[in-house]
Amino acid sequence: MSFGAALKQARESQGLTTQDVALRTKIRGDYLRALEEGNTSLLPERTFARSYLQRYARELSLDPAPLLAEFDRSVPASAEMTQSLRGPGGGAGGPAPPGPFPPPPARRGPPPLKKGGGGVKT
Questions:
Q1: In terms of Cα–Cα distance, which of 77, 62, 76 is closest to 4?
Q2: What is the phi-psi region of residue 82: left when phi exceeds 0, alpha when psi lies from -120 to 50, beta otherwise?
Q3: In sequence order, what are the residues at sequence separation of 6 or more whose Cβ sits closer than 8 angstroms to the Cβ of residue 60?
Q4: What count of other Cβ atoms lies within 10 Å of the Cβ of residue 21?
Q5: Using alpha carbons only, what angle is made at residue 74 by residues 67 and 80, rounded to the nearest 5 degrees?
Q6: Which of 93, 92, 94, 49 has the alpha carbon at shortest distance from 71?
Q7: Do residues 19 and 75 lie in contact, with contact meaning Cβ atoms separated by under 8 Å?
Q8: Residue 110: phi, psi to the nearest 5?
């Protein structure tokens, strides 16, 4: 049985609708239906989808581990994503890739003092 079929069967056996589960878990109903149908193209990024699957399974008193394992087999992490998480050189250290913003200017000593006021009065 697929992870989606297991979720749907458990939900229906408890007499719940996807709207009931959505209200209890705060997961959008269309995401719950996509999980039940195994339609991963309608789900958000993989990390969020796994979290929703885990929360949904726990709400239905199911062990999430086998469902997550099946999800991982059907939606493997892409090599490109794994590489981006490791960084250049496969996580072996080294400089970070340039970001979208230029680096801040180098500081040249303490900021200037304001004239007039701010000093200690005697």
A1: 62
A2: alpha
A3: 7, 10, 11, 14, 16, 21
A4: 21
A5: 120
A6: 49
A7: no
A8: -70, 155
Q: Residue 62: pLDDT above 60?
A: yes
- Please write the tens of the pLDDT for every residue from 6-33: 999 999 999 999 999 999 999 999 999 9
pTM beyond 0.70: the answer is no
| Per-residue pLDDT, 113 | 74
**Residue 95 CB contacts under 8 Å (≥ 6 apart), including other chains:** 88
In which element (H, E) is residue 74 found? helix 64-74
CA 31 to chain CA centroid, nearest Å: 14
- The pLDDT tens digits of the residues spanning 63-109 come to 999 999 999 998 887 743 444 444 554 444 555 566 677 777 777 77
- How distant is the alpha carbon of residue 95 from its chain centre? 26
CA dihedral 32, 53, 20, 17 (to 10 degrees): 60
Q: What is the 3-class SS of 92-116, one letter each residue?
A: CCCCCCCCCCCCCCCCCCCCCCCCC
